[in-house]
Write a structure and sequence with these properties.
Three copies of one chain form a homotrimer. Chain A is an alpha+beta fold. Chain A folds into two domains: 17-121, Rieske [2Fe-2S] iron-sulphur domain (Rieske Iron-sulfur Protein, 3-layer Sandwich); 136-347, Naphthalene 1,2-dioxygenase Alpha Subunit, Chain A, domain 1. Chain A is built from six helices and 18 strands. In chain A, the strands form four sheets. The first copy, chain A, has a seven-stranded antiparallel β-sheet, with helices on one face. A four-stranded antiparallel β-sheet of chain A has the order 2-3-4-9, with no helix packed on it. In chain A, helix 1 (156-164) runs antiparallel to helix 6 (330-347). Chains in contact: A-B, A-C, B-C.
Chain lengths: 354, 354, 354
Amino acid sequence: MPGTSAAKEEGFLYNNWYVAGWGTDLAPGERVGRTFLNQPVVLFRTQSGEVSALEDRCCHRALPLSFGMVEGERIRCSYHGLEFNTQGKCEKIPAQDKVPSTACVRRYPLVERDSLMWIWMGEPALADETAIPAHPWHANPRFRWKSFHYDIQGNWELMIENLMDLSHLPYIHAQTIGGNPELHFGIKTNSTRDGDVVRVSRHMPNSEPPPTYKTAKGFTGKVDRWQEIEFMPVLIRINTGACDADTGAYEGKREHGFSMVGFHGITPETETTTHYFWSVATDALADGVPEKVFQQTADTFREDQEVLELQQLRISAEPDRPLLDIASDVGSRQARQVLRRLMKAEREPGMVAA
Amino acid sequence: MPGTSAAKEEGFLYNNWYVAGWGTDLAPGERVGRTFLNQPVVLFRTQSGEVSALEDRCCHRALPLSFGMVEGERIRCSYHGLEFNTQGKCEKIPAQDKVPSTACVRRYPLVERDSLMWIWMGEPALADETAIPAHPWHANPRFRWKSFHYDIQGNWELMIENLMDLSHLPYIHAQTIGGNPELHFGIKTNSTRDGDVVRVSRHMPNSEPPPTYKTAKGFTGKVDRWQEIEFMPVLIRINTGACDADTGAYEGKREHGFSMVGFHGITPETETTTHYFWSVATDALADGVPEKVFQQTADTFREDQEVLELQQLRISAEPDRPLLDIASDVGSRQARQVLRRLMKAEREPGMVAA
Amino acid sequence: MPGTSAAKEEGFLYNNWYVAGWGTDLAPGERVGRTFLNQPVVLFRTQSGEVSALEDRCCHRALPLSFGMVEGERIRCSYHGLEFNTQGKCEKIPAQDKVPSTACVRRYPLVERDSLMWIWMGEPALADETAIPAHPWHANPRFRWKSFHYDIQGNWELMIENLMDLSHLPYIHAQTIGGNPELHFGIKTNSTRDGDVVRVSRHMPNSEPPPTYKTAKGFTGKVDRWQEIEFMPVLIRINTGACDADTGAYEGKREHGFSMVGFHGITPETETTTHYFWSVATDALADGVPEKVFQQTADTFREDQEVLELQQLRISAEPDRPLLDIASDVGSRQARQVLRRLMKAEREPGMVAA
């Protein structure tokens, strides 16, 4: 297989919905400052409950608005008291009577849905709310789930590569979810592409369930097991689980089995740092089981984080040096091709980029 | 009001007296290394009491002389024992008999006055000691005062802006000296310019004294209150206080009232860091009152420091992006104009800059 | 003496044997990641005892191999399980059947000798093992010795300068081995050059032994004392000691006296950081004496480290600014000339550099 370039710092895809945070991050009257795609943003929720994303830099003296306070339906700068509404328009300058129309900060489209806040960092006119991916597991009463936010010192595409190729499980996660390497390589991986969506799946029919599955759901015989990965820019969903063998798992009848659904929102912070907003949902609700799933997954992803940050050190030192693809990279290569195509398209003349 | 560029890193004004430190920083035989205008300087006091400022880099192997020791009237490098007098001339090289005339380090004019050490980082021939601003409050027996040295991670002009526009008081200092915002904006601000000196004053005649004023001086009725700011490159003096109403405060009769005089020596360390040498003097000498004034002022200025450092983060990210001026910026804009004119002048051909 | 340029960041000498570590750093099955001449290297010892130096970056996804594990005679990457032999050839890719010939990482020649691991960072074809300097004191039963590894935040040539000019002893090491400055400057220093080897020696015949010498060896009368420094690229050996006066010390009969032999392996890590692998050997074996020698030397070299790191700060700020040579720089100047000549030679067309 010819060598291909790894995730190097080739910039960002702007015209895209990214996860900006969890709805629970902001109670009414709260604000938080975060950087997305190199742009500082303040997220705040007004007293009436509306969320807003503005540039985190007062137009007067550049103080971050996130250092300020929410006052009713506005955010107030803590330096000289300028107040901005949820659209970024300044509505009060204490030191003067009139507020000029130039007194404003950039607003970013922000939508709250499925307990997630989605932000659009590109051209506002292109922000189409219907394009926001749904994640109904966050509202499905059959599931329990938990949200997390990791700050990764690595490029966002390294995270995509990591999640699109689970052949790393027996090595990085040998002590947690890894299991036997031979089992992982004895089965076929299917990778398909449908528009901008890439799907990778591995099925293990009539196989021995791993110990954690037995604990979670009480399997006594063989199971039909699945690992299904779905990439869309820039989100990865990983659905894993098992049902008793020959009970319809591969035709979609899975409610009688055991499912874990991982949501992975991957939002570039800078070229070399990434917000990783993830959740895991499970339908194994027996006493203490969900808490174990949450804890084990959180530990596992910290192992991935360590790897990504070490990769970044080497890649930053020699960003143009090619890397070697291997067979299991098929899914991540397809995802990268989707991203390259979209990023190239939005930079072409006629496209309005950020 | 048209947008103007904020304090961006446009360099330094070299031919100017700057505060290098407090006289009490150096006992005989002591030395300290500090950077001013990007140049490393060692300040030391000889055994006989003379102070000197030399380049903090031995001409032999570049070791900082501040790592060495004062020996009598010289400073000795700790690596190979070279000794330099207060003029920067090497007078001893242990390893050889003769000292070549090239063995010397740069000397900076340094003057000790009013408990302050003033340094001249520009062309030495232009250093005129009579141009050093006097600050007689440090020797006035009616006052007690205390000195401070803060290291600010922000550009020096941000500090000037901060002090020239006290309309930030009700916002940054809401918990300390801020008080009621409405009071601050209900009064007129006068700004005048006299050569390189900019003065901003606000008078609050026949007003209710703030609680701290009552505590400090026991006012029982209305007072004539003042806030007077004086900028000269690069120093700001802030005189605030009050007298019983109609007792002559605005004609200069203030000895029967309550005065606080702030001295603010603003010395660039680098483009993005600043030495802030400040003192506050008060004539309210009742038991415990000066200590309260010192502590409250120190706390207040830490709040300003936090703001400046956050501003610097945003400005460093986009140094050329314009900012918006508002009405209360009148004083700081005038100060900036003075600085721009002086900086431009010293860069013109014919002027010998550093 | 004309001013000469100090150790500035002029790059590295590649075609040269450098100390990569101590043999005791690696037990069978262990690995460690280190950077030499800006190149990340993993050193590992296989289960059978062979040592190997490979590029510390997997060719697949750039993860440092030092984050992996030694498996038998190979090192395995911890991300997707690729295994490399001691020559850098990949012999296993778990996710696929065949291993392409492009799957390999760079190997660096590595030789273990005299308890040292020597690495060749330049053109492998030029690596001649017979050119590795011998250091028989590490295997001489008359001596006891101890090894150390300091990480210096300074350019490698600053360390050479430091060791080639011991006239710094009375200043930096006044509290430890320094002693009386006058004694150091009252004697003649000889500096000679023999090919790429520079030797500096100072003899103190019929002199009073310093207190530590008396303690170590029980001298009661005058001694013939020596300080002999030997530089070869890039290693410095310092032999100091004394014998009873007129007993043949200067003709090489020294076994009846007191000797300390310092080995100083100076390996650039980056332009501004250095691996300092050093040992000290002594033939004063009386109870507790070697331990005192080791501890005192370790403390002394920490003093040098502090100086070098402060020098580096000043030199990094103005790398092109000339420095002044003094009489005692004769040895370091000769060493620098050797290095400049070798570095220039290996950059010429026809020479294959790294």
